[in-house]
Amino acid sequence: MGYVRPDGSVGVRNHVAIIPTVACVNGVARMVEREVGGAVAIIHGHGCGRAVEIGMHQGALAGIGANPNVAGAVVIGLGCETIDADWVASRIAEKGKPVEVYRVQEHGGSLKTARKAADAARAMVGDLSLLERVECGIDSLVLGLECGGSDAFSGVSANPAVGLVVDWVVDAGGSAILTESTEMIGTAHILARRAHDGETARQVEKVVDDAWRRAQDILGPLAPFVVAPGNMDGGISSISEKSLGCICKAGSRSIQGVYGYGTRPERTGLVIMDGPGYDMESMAGLASAGCQVILFTTGRGTPAGFPVVPVVKVASTSRLFAAMEDDMDVNAGTVLDGEPMEVVAGRIAARMLEIAGGQPSKAETNGMGGIVCLYAVTPSF
Amino acid sequence: MGEKDDLNCIVIHARDNVAVARVDIEAGGAVRPRPGESFPALERIPCGHKVALVGIGMGEPVCKYGEIIGYATVDIAPGALVHTHNLKGDEP
Question: Do A237 and B46 touch (CB under 8 A)?
Answer without folding.
Answer: no
